[in-house]
Each structure stands twice: as structure tokens, then as C-alpha cells.
Amino acid sequence: MKRDAASQSMDSELEEAICKLAWLNFARARGDVDSCAALLSELKVLLTRIPSLPPSFEKTPNAVEELKIARAIYENAVILSLKINDREALERNCCQLKEFYINTCGMIPPSPEEYPFLGLNLLRLLAENRIAEFHTELEFLPLEALNHPCIKYVVELEQSLMEGAYNRLINARQAVPHETYVYLMDLLSETVRDEVAECSVEAYDYLPISVAKKMLMFTSDQELLEYISEEQSEWEIKNCSVHFDMAKPKSHMNLPSFKLFKQALSYARELEQIL
């Protein structure tokens, strides 16, 4: 009797999850973000009562269907966190979704969205300039994944970033292989712009506004001025030029010992991220 009761309980929870997932897909298709968020919260609570899911992976009668439903729920959760621009939720949902992709291999059929979402996670790390973590995640992917268009796209973006081919990187926005990638391309553009800004400070004392606008990939002088006001308070506008004097490193920072110390800290930070 106890087994029958437990089985019926699991069946009812699975049926509830299937029903709410259907409503979630309907709300997402309508662009109803508030309903999506509410349904996802309810579904995640519901998932905590299903023992077939990670990390326990109990072999329940409905384990296969339950794992597939849970995976679909977290795929929706990743999409929602992108739409509401919640980076913390995006990282959390990507990690939880990756658990299903990696640890359910052979237990359930692979998701058609697996490589696109794994590529999305790589793009997230790249856009946040977390290069060491990017390469760590890349090394864990199976060889066949490297030939998938979504993975190849992000790897090529990283190569462009390392080569300093920023225009090529920005233009890649027009050829995203998956609709979800568009949400992170703006963040990647900001990362690229910050890299160009840092290099400009090191390389020049000042730049004409027209040149600075082009280098920083702005379409108008107003956009450049707003960027300087909000992000680069040490830059100055004088004589129709952008001056970097106040943002230059202090003289003691050019000493060899300081450079070595700074480089050592950088290496230590990268090593800590990898480990």
C-alpha cells in the first residue's frame, strides 16, 4: 500500500510538472515574463520533491520522463534569466542545466538544445572576461562538440578577442547561430569596449573625439560623452579631444619590481581560477 501511495504521489507530481511546463512554454511564446517567472518558481519547488533528479538519481518508475521534464525546465530558466538580464540567475541556471547534460548521459535522450546552451555558457564566460574559466569549460567538452556551429562560433569569438580583432568580434553579432546568443552580445561589446579603453589609456595621451568615437565603437559624440561621464570619470574633454592624463598609471607603477609584482598577481589569479 505504501509503495502504491508513493507511486501515485510521484505520478501526480509529474503530471503537475508537465501541465505547468506547458503553461510556461505558452507564457514564453507570448512574451509574458512575469508569468514565466512565477511558473518557474513553482516548478523549481516541485522539482525538489522528485527523487530521480540530481544528485540522488533514484531509479523511480518515471525517472526518464522526470529527468527530461526537469531539463526542459532549466532550459527555460536560462532563457528567462537572459531576458530579465539577471547575471547571477543565469550563472546559477547554467550550472544546474549543465548537471543534466553531463550526468544524465545514457539515462535520457540528449537534448537538441544541449550544444547551443553549452555554447551559451561559454559565451557568458567570454562576455564577462573570465578567460581562464572559459578554457576550463572548453576542455571538458567532448570532441564532437567542437564541431557544432554554436561552439565553433564562440571559440572564434574568443580568438578574435585574443587577437585584438575587435571589429570582427563586434560584426559577429550579425551571424549569431542561436537566438539566445543575442542577449549576451551587448555584454560582450561592453567588455570589448573596456579593453579598447584600457589600451587607449596606455597608448595615447589624447585622441580627437572623432577618433575616440570610432575606436570605442560609438555612433555619435553624445554616446561617447555619456560613456566617459558614466564609466571613465578620469578622462577629460579639452580642445575637441579626449585626454587620458588623469587615468595614466602613476610613475611608481612603471618600476620593474612593480610590473613583476603585478604580473605575479595576475598569474596567481588565473591559476586560482583554473584550480
UniProtKB/TrEMBL annotation:
Signal peptide: none annotated. Pfam families: CSN8_PSD8_EIF3K. It comes from the Eukaryota. GO terms for cellular component: proteasome complex. Keywords: Proteasome. Residues 85-260 form the PCI domain. The keyword Lyase does not apply. Belongs to the proteasome subunit S14 family. This is PCI domain-containing protein. The lineage of its organism: Eukaryota, Viridiplantae, Streptophyta, Embryophyta, Tracheophyta.
